Amino acid sequence: MWFDGRVKLLPPRLRIQSGAAICAIFLAACTAARSVSAQSNQESAYQKELVAISKQIAKQPRNFELLHRRAFLYIKLERNKDALIDGVQMLKLEPKNVRAINTLAWAYNNLSQYDESLKLADKAIAIDPKHYAAYFNRGISLYNKSDYKGAIKSYDKVLELNPKYADAYFERACCHEMLQNYSKVVEDSDACVKLNPRRARAYNMRGYGHLKQAEYKDAIRDFETAYQLDPKFAAALKNIGWAYDEQEEYKTAIGYYTKAIKLDPNFSDAYERRGYSKNNIDDYKGAIEDTTAAIKLAPRDSWPYDCRGFAKRMLGDSKGAEADFTESLKLEPDCVWTLANRSHARFAQGKLRGALEDFLDANRLQKKESSKEIADIGQKLMQEQKKATKKIMDSVLNPKK
Predict the structure, then answer these.
(1) Strand residue runs (E) in 21-113
(2) Residue 210 domain-assigned?
(3) pLDDT over 90 (residue 9)
(4) Is 74 inside any structural domain?
C-alpha cells in the first residue's frame, strides 16, 4: 500500500473479558464519579475561599500573604489577568520576594506570554538559586518555545532540589516525547505515577511511550487506566484505538474512535484516525466522510487530506486525490509519502511529467528507513510510465487509419 498511515502525537470503555467484569465496571464507574465530583468540589472550594479572602484584603490591602493566596486562587480558577494585578501589588510591597516574582511567571505562562515568564523565572532564580518552583516555570516557558533540551535541564534542577515533585517528572516526560526519547517518556511518567497514582494524564503519557516502542499491551493497560481515572478523557479512548491500529486490528480500533467521538464530537484526531482505519478495511466512502469531518474541524492539519486523497484514489477519483495531496503538501511540503501518492494520482491521469517530478522529489527527501519501499515504488512507477509512453508514441507514429 502506498499510503503510509502517518500519525501525529499527541490519545475505552474497558474491554472486559473475564467473569469479574461487573465488579471492574462498577469500580470504574465509582472512580469516575469521584473524580468528576472531586474536581467540581475543589473549584467550588476555591470560589468560596476567594470571596472570603477578598473581603479580608479589602480591610488589609497591604497584606502580602493574603495577596499571594488570592493570586494563587485566581490562577487555579483561570483568572490569570487578575493574578497579575495581585502579583504586581505584591512586588510593590516586597520587590525581591521570589514567591511574588514566580507567581507572575506562572500567570504569564498561562497567558502564553513565555518570554515575559522566562525573564521573571530567571529573576527569581538569580535571587534564590534554590527556588525550585522558578525552575519549573522556566521549564514550562522553554518547552512552549520548543527548547525541549533546555526545558529538560530546568526540570532536572527542579528534581535535584525537590525529588518528589511529580509535576516535574510529567513535564520532563513531555519534553522527552517531543525529542522521541520514548524509553525516557516511560521512565519519567512512571515516576510521576508512583508519586501521584491518580494522575490520568501521566498514565496516558506512559501509555504513549509504550505505544511508540510497540509495547501494545502495556500501552492499552495505561490508556484504560487513564480513562478509568478521568471518564471525560477522550484522548485516552482514541489512543486505545491507535494501539489496535498499530496491531492491524482496525475494526476494534474503529470502535474506540467512535466512543471517543461520542464523548467529544469535535475531536478531529479521532475522526482522522477512524478514517485511516476505514481505509485499511477498504471502506473508502466511510474514510472520506470521516476525513472530511476532520478537515472541517482542523483545516490546517495535513494528515486528513492524505487519508482522504488515498481513499479517493482507491475509488478511481485520481483528480480529487491529486487535489487533496496538493493541499497536504501546502501544509507539509517535504512529506515523502504525500509526494509518492500524488505521483501515482498524477500518473493515473496521464500527467507523466508531474508524476516524475513528484517521484524525484520524494526520492530526494526519502529517509534511510524507507529507502527500499521508495525504490520499489519508483521501479513500479517507471515501469508503468514506460508502458504508457510507448503507448503514446505508438499512437503518434502508427496512427490508426
Answers:
(1) none
(2) no
(3) no
(4) yes
- Stretch (H or E) spanning 343: helix 336-348
**DSSP H or E stretch at residue 187:** helix 182-195
d(CA 190, CA 170): 9
Residue showing cell 512529506: 335
Q: Is residue 113 part of a domain?
A: yes
Q: How many domains are there within the chain?
A: 1
For range 382-389, the mean pLDDT: 56
Confidence class for position 105, pLDDT limits 50, 70, 90: very high
Q: What is the mean pLDDT of the chain?
A: 86
Say what the pLDDT of residue 4 is.
31
Q: Are the CB atoms for 278 and 262 separated by under 8 Å?
A: no
Which whole-number Å values give the CA distances from 61 to 57, 89, 335, in the listed order?
5, 9, 58
C-alpha 286/C-alpha 279 separation (Å) is: 8
Minimal CA–CA distance to 354: which of 362, 365, 364, 343? 343
Query: CA-to-CA distance for 78 and 89, rounded, in angstroms?
Result: 19
Q: Would you place residue 388 in the very low, low, confident or very high pLDDT band (cuts 50, 70, 90)?
A: low
Question: How far from the centroid of its chain's Cα atoms is residue 303's Cα?
Answer: 13
Can you tell me the distance from the alpha carbon of 401 to that of 395, in angstroms, rounded to the nearest whole number? 11
Percent of the residues in the chain that have a pLDDT greater than 90, as a whole number: 74
Q: Is residue 70 part of a domain?
A: yes
CATH label of the domain that carries residue 112: 1.25.40.10
pLDDT in tens, 349-376: 989 889 888 888 887 877 544 455 555 6
97: containing domain: 47-129
